[in-house]
Specification:
Blueprint lengths: L1 H12 L2 H21 L4 H21 L8 H22 L5 H31 L2 H11 L4 H8 L4 H21 L1 H7 L2
Helix pairs in contact: 1-2, 1-3, 2-3, 2-4, 3-4, 4-5, 5-8, 6-8, 7-8
Length: about 190
């Protein structure tokens, strides 16, 4: 997608206007998620910045394409980073230098694994029908069933729920049918 490439290039070239757009559109959602999950606004801002840097470094090292929207990709990266932070703080009450170095190496492996899983998800989503892509994008962006009925001209919320269920089921099948799925499961 052209917009997604625009965001990736903006991260590499430090295009402040485009990056400001990301802050304006996505950071509030990240703040809400982090605050609702045992964090504060400063934590959210740190996580958001860390996600931008990680995406830029990874793209510079090995260019990739994003099959969903860049903003959804960025939000997912932020959620994953925050969950890792919560997990780290609950498991590491006392640390010495060796434990910290081991954890950092282990965390890097988790970041790569999480990214591989996200890419597998995006490939499967890309293989879905256009209708399912629309429905799932709305579902993952917390669009209400009532709004789905209006936007997609369904007859009722029950029909919208059934479509979401069927599309999620199909997406799961596509993921499980991928050769990458078994390779990731074994890690």
């Amino acid at each position: 997608m052209a917009d997604d490439l625009k965001y990736l290039r903006a991260l590499l070239t430090s295009d402040s206007a485009v990056i400001s757009e990301l802050y304006k559109d996505t950071l509030p959602k990240v703040k809400k998620f982090v605050v609702q999950n045992k964090g504060c606004v400063e934590d959210a801002e740190d996580i958001f910045q860390k996600a931008l840097v990680q995406i830029a470094v990874r793209y510079k090292k090995n260019p990739f394409s994003i099959k969903s929207s860049f903003k959804a990709f960025l939000f997912t990266a932020c959620k994953n980073l925050w969950r890792r932070e919560l997990n780290k703080s609950s498991h590491w009450v006392t640390k010495d230098i060796e434990e910290e170095q081991f954890y950092i190496k282990n965390e890097d492996a988790h970041v790569l694994l999480e990214q591989e899983r996200l890419e597998l998800f995006q490939v499967a989503l890309d293989l879905s029908s256009d209708n399912c892509k629309s429905i799932l994008e709305m579902f993952f962006n917390d669009v209400s069933y009532a709004d789905m009925v209006k936007d997609l001209a369904y007859s009722s919320e029950t029909v919208a729920r059934q479509r979401v269920f069927k599309c999620k089921k199909k997406l799961i099948e596509l993921i499980k049918d991928s050769p990458r799925f078994n390779a990731l499961r074994e890690l």
